Fold this sequence. Notes:
InterPro entries: Methyltransf_25, SAM-dependent_MTases_sf. The protein is an alpha/beta fold. The chain has one domain: Vaccinia Virus protein VP39 (Rossmann fold, 3-Layer(aba) Sandwich). It has 11 helices and 9 strands. It has a 7-stranded mixed sheet with strand order 3-2-1-4-5-9-6, with helices on both faces. Strands 7-8 form a two-stranded antiparallel sheet. Helix 3 packs parallel to helix 4 and helix 7 packs antiparallel against helix 11.
Amino acid sequence: MTPTLVRRHRPSPSPPRSRVRDWAEIQERMLVPLYEAVYERLEVDDGTRLLSLGCGSGLALLMAASRGATVSGIDTDERRLDLARERLAAHPSSVPVRLGHGGVDCVVDPADPPFTLVTAFDPLYCAGGGAREMAEALRQAAARARRGAPVVLAGWGPPERCAASGALRVAARLADPMATAAHWRPSGRDDLEDLARMAGLRPDGSGRVACPYGYADLASAVRGLLSTGAFDAATRTTDQEQVSKELTEAVHPYLRGDGTVWMPNVFRYLIARV
């Protein structure tokens, strides 16, 4: 790889307002295999009452609703929630959908029956916090769930099986090590189990799912990865242009002859019980 080649492919930084659209239109679909595997294993159907922590722009909720589930979701990003509302409003379902910015209470009616499934697919859901904050969010959700209900946590698989690891190391290297914002680090073998136990949940099975990241071109790859939020701390510490430059260099080895980018990855999920 020559410096000239990297400069030729380097995209301009995306305006902040476009990042949510980049997530919804480029990046979010990469996790569809994970959503499908979990829903199939847990037999999500019209008897399911789902609560999603970190529901983002709503693709996982939409997929569950298409199976007949009643869905609710919370997120820390109001702009992503706006997109989720648009998507779910267009879904041909007579069941009301509750979406909220904040804690579990903002989507719970005391008269409602308990949730039968809780998901936390986004490991960066508690950006600005850490394991303790995520465990507390899980405890609050579990308190609204039926006894024995599954709670699904997801995270990265082994770094050697995740092509995105190199790109995500850029975030960890450039970020201020003292920053409180969540950023990527290699996944420990028992991270999800430890988080579940911290939240008072009982681990009860796990699985791995291939979630390759495929992009139309290098610029789309950089925009998609930046939209995840994993690079926010790095951007605050340095600047958007520096992060985009180094991210482009990290992704470049996965650029194929036809101009597309293909990055094989494995995600791991844990099923815990309330």
